[in-house]
Amino acid sequence: ASGGEEAAPPPPPPPAGPAGGGGGETVEEHREKGGDLATDISYQWLRFFLHDDAELARIGDEYSSGRMLSGEIKAELVKCLVPLVAQHQQARALVTDDVVKTFMTPRPLVGASAES
What's the pTM? Predict the structure, then answer.
């Protein structure tokens, strides 16, 4: 700090308990009991977005046994989602006003009868 002012202390770390997850209240509890795959949000998202069943099974086993902590399963989810979001951003960048106008223009359905 400048001017003789003392810097404020850093904020305390967040609690070790589950933040929308199935981990234990403390690291020790999580290591002992493991994570609850049925209630852990990160694991549920991985079930949807991770296409490698063997890797999902490995992560589930590691987390439910307590060998993997909540922060580590969240990191696995980030590894899975970052490429997906980047791909979406690249595709979105290609959408122009003309593409939107073409997409949104009403047109007859192919194969629809005139009587419908």
Answer: 0.67
